[in-house]
Amino acid sequence: MKDSSSIEAIRKRATIYARFSTDLQNERSIEDQLSLCQSYAERERLTVVSTYEDRARSGGSVMGREGLLRMFDQARERSFDVVIVEALDRLSRDMEDLAGIHKRLTFLGIEIRAVHEGVVNTVLVGLRGLVGQLYREDNAHKVRRGLAGRVKQGLAGGGLTYGYAPVAGKSGERVVLETEAQVIRRIFQEYVDGRTPREIAHDLNKERVSPPRGRAWNASTINGNVQRGAGILQNELYVGRLVWNKVRMVKDPDSGKRLSRPNPRSDWQIAEVPHLAIVSPELFTAAQQRKGDRSHGHPSHQRRPRRMLSGLLHCGSCGSGMATNGRDKSGRVRIRCSAATESGTCPDAKTFYLDTVETAVLSGLKAELRAPNVLSEYVRTYVEERKRLAATSNAKRQRLEQQLGQLNREIERLVDAIAKGHGDPSILGPRSTALDAKRKRISEELQSEPLALKEVAPHPAILKRYEDQLGRLEGALAKGARAGDGEAAEAIRDLVERVTVFRDPARPGGVAVEIAGRLNALLGEKAYPNHVKGVWGKVVAGEGLEPPTPGL
C-alpha cells in the first residue's frame, strides 16, 4: 500500500488563471475564481503551484494581458502540467486566440481544465470559442444600440468634451464649464477676427491655459480633422448640436490596439441640445466660412514642391520635425522646429538657413560615401545578400521538385488502382484530375523559378549601382538641387533617412547635422553608423546660425 508521500509525488502540478473584463466589474471576481479553481484542484488531486491573473483586461485579445503572458513563459519551462480556469472564456473570447492558446499548451504537453467542463479538447475549444466571440460581438451591438438611444435623448454617447462637466448622479448629462467655455469663445472669436490656429495656440500656451489633453495646445487641437469632424472649430456641440457616431473603433488583430476609423456622414447621428450651446450660431457659421475660404486658397499659396530634405529634418533640441519658415530679405529660406512653430514648446525656437543645412548634408555624403572602407562594406554586404538569395532560391526549387515528385507518384498509384479495378472510378477519377491540376500549377511555378545559382561572387553591377547613386547626387547638385529639384530629392532619399539639426557648441552660432542613412538596411549596424569612421556622424556646416527673427 502506497504511503501519502508517494501519492503526493505523482500528483500533477497545476496553475490557476483568472481574469475579469472591466473596471466596472467587482474586484472580488478574481478571488472568487481562484477559490473555485482551488476547490476543483483539491477534488481532482492536483497540486496548485502558481496562480496568474489579469484584472480589468478584455478577453477580446491576448495583447496587454501580463498574467497570461507570464503563464506562457512558465509553460515553456514546463513549470506545471495543467492550467485550471473557471471557464474557457476566461482565457479568451476570440476564436483565433483561444484556438492558439490550446494549440500551444497542447504542444507543450499541458492540459487545460475548466471547472464546469473538465478536460478541454479541440471540439470544446471550437464551440466555446465561437460562443465567446458571438457573445462579445452581440454585446458590442447592444452597447451601440444603447448609446444611440441615449444620444437621441441628448445624453452623452461617451467621452467628455472640453468645455463641459458631468452632472453627478445623472449618467450622460453634462453642464457647461464656464472657465473652459470662455476659452472656447475666445478661440472662435479670434479665429473669425483673422488670427490663425497656430497664433492662438501660442498665446494659450504662453498664458498656461490647460489644454483639452496632452501638455500643450497645438494648431491641430483647434483646427482638427475635416473628415472626422474633430477639433474645437468643427465641434458642433459648441453650437448646441450633438453629433455622434463620427468614428468607429476597430481592434488591430496583430497589436491588440483599438484604432478609430471615420464613418461616412450618412451614419452620423444628430440631436439638438440647445442648453449645451457655448457659441452663437452666427459665430460658429462665420468660423466655418473662414475655414472653407482658407482651404481653397490661391494656387500660389499652396504647398510648394517637396525639397530634397523635406520630411527628413528633425530638431536636435526636442526631436520634432522641421519645416520651412519663410525667407529673409535676400530670399534665403529659413527652417524652424515645428514644435516651436505650432505650439511654442521647443526650448530652441531659433531658425536655421536651409541652404546651410543642405550644404553640410551633401558635402558630408559626397566625402564619406567615397571612403574605401565604406565601399568595401557595401560590396561585402552585397555578396552576403547574394548568397542568402541563392540559398533561398535553391531551397524553394528543391521544395517544388519534391512536391512534384510526390504528386507524380500519387497520380500513378491512382491510375494503377483504376486500371486494376481496385477502386471506384467515379471517386478516384476526380481525385486524379484534381491532383493533375495541382501538378501543372507546381510545374509552372518551378519553370518560372530562376535556376539555382552555382557561384556567388562580387558582381560589377553592384559597383556600378553604387557609382550611379553618387553620380545622381552630384548631377542633382549641378542642376540646382537646393531649389527643390525632384531628382535631387529622390537621390537623397536613396541614401538618407533622417537629418537632425543641432547648434554646434564648439562654435558660437555654428550648425551641425547628424545623418542617419537608409543604407543601414543594406550594410547592417556594424557599418552604419557605428563602426565606419566619419560615416553618418555630425557634420559641421561652414556658415553660422541665423539670429532669432522678431515676430516668428
From TrEMBL:
CDD domains: Ser_Recombinase (cd00338). SUPFAM superfamilies: Resolvase-like (SSF53041). Residues 161-297 form the Recombinase domain. It comes from the Bacteria. Pfam families: Recombinase, Resolvase, Zn_ribbon_recom. Signal peptide: none annotated. InterPro entries: DNA_bind_recomb_sf, DNA_bind_recombinase_dom, Resolv_N, Resolvase-like_N_sf, SSR_resolvase, Zn_ribbon_recom_dom. Keywords: Coiled coil. One of its GO terms (molecular function) is DNA strand exchange activity. PROSITE patterns: RECOMBINASE_DNA_BIND (PS51737), RECOMBINASES_3 (PS51736). The keyword Coiled coil applies. Residues 13-166 form the Resolvase/invertase-type recombinase catalytic domain. The keyword Cell cycle does not apply. Residues 383-417 form a coiled coil. This is Recombinase family protein. It comes from Bradyrhizobium forestalis.
